[in-house]
Design a protein that fits this description.
With 201 residues, the chain is of the alpha+beta class. The protein is built from seven helices and six strands; from the N terminus they run H-E-E-H-E-E-H-E-H-E-H-H-H.
């Protein structure tokens, strides 16, 4: 997390994506996203996210006009489509990230908190409805397995921060996140199960 924050702040570029060192992106991702934002207008591009196992090779599909859709209300779009991937599935103008940071001390869900903190800032963008980001699934990764007590406390902190953020916005936006997204997060935490563990520093 710390390296993401430092890199985003120091980057002398117009656009940012978040890419883990062992993941893979479509070879045309940068070209198509820059062209959309520069030539058609917009501050972000969403794209589908797909997992693959270590040892496998991701399958890249051809990007065509038929798979590109405009997005005018990104928060509603996220909620309506059950969008997955967080910041890993978003190409965004660097200026839109100014003042945002990841929650420190949280190892699960911090990217989700960051992306939902960013969404209210975004206005016009695009969605490429095929996988352009490929997440390498490895045994023992941070987001696999059950949740520890520390993880649950971390998710509670995420919900508290997002609740305060959206509460400061208009009531329609706050109601949308409170009624349509918060329950899904809580349900997912319960579904994955909780294993009691000591809280590490």
């Amino acid at each position: 997390v710390a390296q993401y924050v430092a890199a985003a702040r120091k980057a002398n570029l117009d656009y940012i994506i978040f890419l883990d060192s062992d993941d893979v992106v479509h070879p045309e991702l940068f070209t198509i996203c820059v062209n959309l934002c520069e030539n058609k207008g917009g501050d972000f591009v969403l794209y589908n996210y797909e997992e693959f196992s270590s040892g496998d090779i991701p399958q890249f599909r051809q990007i065509s006009c038929d798979c590109i859709q405009s997005v005018d209300e990104p928060l509603s779009y996220y909620l309506d489509n059950g969008f997955k991937g967080g910041m890993s599935a978003m190409f965004v103008r660097r200026k839109m990230l100014e003042g945002l940071s990841f929650l420190r001390g949280i190892s699960k869900g911090e990217d989700m908190c960051f992306s939902f903190s960013l969404l209210p800032r975004l206005k016009k963008g695009w969605h490429i409805r095929i996988p352009l980001y490929f997440y390498r699934r490895t045994e023992g990764s941070l987001d696999s397995g059950s949740l520890s007590l520390k993880d649950v406390i971390g998710f509670a902190e995420i919900l508290r921060n997002l609740n305060n953020l959206y509460l400061s916005l208009d009531s329609k936006t706050y109601n949308a996140i409170q009624r349509r997204w918060f329950p899904k997060v809580i349900k997912n935490i319960v579904k994955r199960g909780v294993r009691l563990a000591s809280v590490d520093d």
